[in-house]
Specification:
Elements: H1 2-17, H2 19-26, H3 31-60, H4 62-68, H5 74-126, H6 130-133
Helix pairs in contact: 1-2, 1-5, 2-5, 3-5
């Protein structure tokens, strides 16, 4: 019986140190808080990525940009950039919302199974003989 408990403890420890570590971190948050945090991170990272891509595109086409700058309608260019940013942001935030909800659901199911096994292990140890909890052998 002790060998089974030790085996279960090893299994639970491997879970905590392996794939379960990330799931346990995710489940420390409420679902709404986790999703909101992921969306806030996505907002900032998407904004940074948009401006980096814009800067790289401008740097790569600097000759064309300088030749045609006086012919550009800056209001139209600004409107196109703003609409592009809004569409990119809305799309990416929607994807982030869906993936964060799915990730939280999977983590919650995984941690729930872990907690059930942990509770069963605790109940088995608690209801074992008092000497077994301290590693003493009875009958000596």
């Amino acid at each position: 019986m002790n060998l089974m408990r030790v085996s279960e403890m090893v299994h639970l420890t491997r879970y905590e140190e392996g794939k379960g570590g990330a799931a346990l971190k995710i489940c420390k948050y409420y679902k709404g808080d986790y999703v909101a945090l992921q969306m806030i991170k996505s907002f900032f990272l998407t904004t940074i990525a948009f401006f980096l891509i814009l800067a790289l595109a401008a740097a790569g086409n600097i000759n064309w940009f300088l030749e045609h700058f006086d012919q550009m309608n800056l209001a139209v260019v600004g409107a196109i950039l703003l609409i592009s940013y809004i569409v990119l942001m809305a799309t990416y935030l929607a994807v982030t919302f869906v993936t964060a909800n799915i990730r939280y659901g999977k983590a919650r199911r995984s941690v729930r199974a872990y907690e059930i096994r942990l509770k069963e292990l605790g109940d088995n140890i608690r209801y074992a003989s008092p000497d077994a909890a301290y590693g003493k052998r009875s009958g000596r």
